[in-house]
User: Which sequence fits this backbone?
């Protein structure tokens, strides 16, 4: 689809509450733009993946005018040329609130079409009942209690190091992930899961790197891609998956996964903060 002018971006602006279906509220952001500033063509990067969004404030009217409430899971392939700006996503979902649909399947089809059109690729939508049980969180090793010292908070991949004579296969997690919205400057909080096989990454250096994201400004998806790229190029693992579970904002949480395995699919579990 054509690029949308930045003055149409709803971020940082007051927005009218529209409760009748309005797909033009969705605002796309090019996934490639952030990489262009680094002189990198995103299409050459060695990762696959998807962005899993969960919506907790999904509602519409049935044909009798009775409100229906649900949750929803949205999966956007990382290959789509555009991500969807989160405030516009929320406003779009709100536009269903006073709109009648015959069934949840019609809602799913409507959302899937609109999101696919804006993202530039196939987006899947699953309406979930309120008693839906999310999968269990996978077994991990948390690195947050390691004894490190920080005196600056600028993204610094040079701090990453490995133990070349030691091998590792498993998943590490840190709940200290924080980055900032590049438009509003507001903080985005989350947990980041690093699954890899190869020479052992020095875990203190990995935690130092994650904390160095604390003042970094980028969208959720691009923070995960940057983390993948930095670990991949600095530590050279045989395989790598980076998966962030961000705390919800405005009834939505965003959970990007990037992996060297093209068949890797994100398990949509939920952390205690989500």
Assistant:
């Amino acid at each position: 689809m054509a690029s949308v002018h930045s003055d149409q971006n709803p971020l940082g602006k007051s927005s009218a509450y529209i409760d009748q279906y309005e797909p033009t509220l969705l605002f796309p952001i090019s996934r490639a733009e952030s990489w262009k500033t680094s002189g990198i063509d995103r299409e050459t990067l060695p990762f696959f993946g998807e962005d899993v969004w969960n919506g907790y404030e999904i509602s519409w009217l049935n044909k009798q005018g009775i409100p229906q409430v649900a949750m929803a899971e949205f999966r956007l392939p990382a290959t789509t040329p555009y991500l969807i700006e989160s405030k516009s996503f929320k406003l779009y979902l709100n536009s269903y609130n006073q709109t009648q649909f015959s069934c949840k399947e019609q809602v799913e089809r409507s959302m899937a079409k609109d999101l696919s059109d804006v993202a530039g690729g196939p987006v899947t939508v699953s309406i979930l009942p309120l008693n839906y049980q999310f999968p269990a969180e996978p077994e991990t090793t948390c690195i947050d209690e390691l004894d490190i010292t920080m005196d600056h908070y600028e993204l610094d991949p040079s701090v990453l190091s490995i133990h070349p004579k030691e091998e590792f296969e498993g998943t590490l997690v840190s709940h200290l992930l924080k980055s900032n919205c590049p438009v509003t400057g507001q903080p985005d909080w989350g947990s980041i899961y690093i699954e890899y096989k190869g020479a052992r990454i020095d875990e203190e250096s990995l935690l130092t790197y994650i904390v160095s994201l604390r003042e970094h400004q980028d969208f959720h998806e691009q923070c995960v891609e940057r983390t993948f790229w930095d670990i991949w190029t600095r530590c050279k693992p045989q395989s790598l998956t980076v998966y962030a579970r961000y705390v919800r904002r405005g009834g939505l949480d965003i959970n990007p996964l990037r992996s060297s395995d093209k068949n890797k699919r994100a398990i949509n579990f939920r952390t205690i903060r989500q």
Summary: The longest helix spans residues 104-119. The first strand starts at residue 28 and ends at 30.
